[in-house]
Structures are given as structure tokens and as C-alpha cells.
Amino acid sequence: MLNSITNINFHEKELKDELDAIEHMYFKAGEELIRVNSYIKVIPLLVTGLIGVYRMDEEGREILLYYIKPGETCIMSFLAGINNNTIKLRAVIEEDCELIIIPVDKVIQWVKKYPEWVDYIFKLYNKRFEDLLEVVNAIAFQKMDERIFQNLQKKSEMSEKKEISITHQQLADEIGTTREVVSRLLKKMERDGLLSLGRNKIVLM
User: Fold this and answer.
1) What would the pLDDT profile of 64-118 be if each residue is shown by its tens digit?
2) Of the candidates 110, 88, 105, which has an alpha carbon nearest to the alpha carbon of residue 39?
3) Is 174 exposed, middle or buried (0-12, 13-18, 19+ CB in 10 A)?
């Protein structure tokens, strides 16, 4: 059953039964789950793994907005799907994932049918809003080295590992800066004893 392997704990039996009956799909790290400007026909509900959601500017630079963790869905996909709009974000598989793929029409039915589902969506919407506020605060008030280290700490917490597999370019893309800036600041952090650098990996101390 879904709620035995995710952080979701629905109590309405009919809702749990409907979720259990929906198709599961599997994706590998690095795959693009949602493309910018695409129409959303299904809503992904994450069972295992990790998904990163990014915003791209007109020059093609990206910034990481938030992560989708097990038990969560992409609230922006939900909003785009129920309003039949294109989505302005990109979702990338960060760690191998198992997903429940929920058709948009079923999601709309659940909003009308299950109060518990509505409560779940509102709570998740509030969480995403707080995530976006953190991004805005980081851009407005934090130094670049603080943003980089905070990003690495968040990755470490989610994977429960000190070793993070990532290139300097990938980290730069997530922060919204250049690889040269990231490399220079990472080397300084290494000299300060905060982390150690390896080939395509960073180990927090």
C-alpha cells in the first residue's frame, strides 16, 4: 500500500484504494521528468527517490527552487494540470525514482471527492511557498559561499550521506552562477576545513 512506503498517511480507505490501483513508473537519475512549457496530463507522486525542480531564465541559466521528496507531488504540475496551462518549470530526477502517475482528471475528481486529499494539497502548497521564500531570501541576503554550502548541506541531509556526487558545473547551475565562481569558493571552503573535493564529488566534514 502507498502509505506504507511513503510519508503520506491517508485515512480514507477509498482514496488509499484508488492510489494503490494507479500505475507505478520508474526513472533513472538524470532523466528529465517535466519539460518547460509542456502541458501537464499526469501528476507525479513520489514513492522513492528525489526530484529537483528548476526555473530557467531567458538566457538559459537555471536555479534550483526546491526538492520533491517521497510522499510529495509537484504542486506546480498540479496547478498547471487542473488549469490546463503550460508549466514554466523543469523537473529532473536527482536520484532513481519510483513514481505513481496520477491522471489530471482523477486529481480533479479527488479534490471534489476527498477532503483529506484537499488538505494534503494545501499543506504541500504551503510547504512549497516556504521553500520559494527561502530561495528569495538566499538570493537577496546571503553571500554566494553561504548559498553554496547551504545547498550542499541540504543535499547531504536528504541523502543522509556526507559524500555528494555532483560536478562544479551542476552546482553552479543549481545556484544560478558560473562554474568558475563555484570552483573558487569550494577551494576556499576546502582550505577552511569545511569539505574535501574529489572527482565529481564533494565530502562535507
Assistant:
1) 888 999 999 999 999 999 899 999 899 999 989 999 999 999 999 999 999 999 9
2) 88
3) buried
pTM of the complete model: 0.80
The DSSP code sequence of 85-120 is: -B--EEEEEEEEEEEEEEEHHHHHHHHHH-HHHHHH
Positive or negative CA dihedral for 35, 36, 40, 42? Answer: positive
Give me the amino acid identity at 87: I
The string of pLDDT tens digits covering residues 119-167 is 999 999 999 999 889 888 888 888 999 999 988 998 888 778 899 888 9
Choose among 158, 137, 152: nearest CA to 182: 152
How many other C-beta atoms can be found within 10 angstroms of the C-beta atom of residue 80? 21
Separation of alpha carbons 21 and 12, rounded Å: 15
Nearest of 150, 141, 188 to residue 171 by alpha carbon: 150
- Residue 72 · residue 31 · CB < 8 Å: no
Structural element, H or E, at residue 204: strand 201-204
Tens digit of pLDDT for each residue in 6-46?
A: 456 788 889 988 988 898 999 999 999 999 999 999 999 99
**Phi/psi at 191 (5° precision):** -65, -30
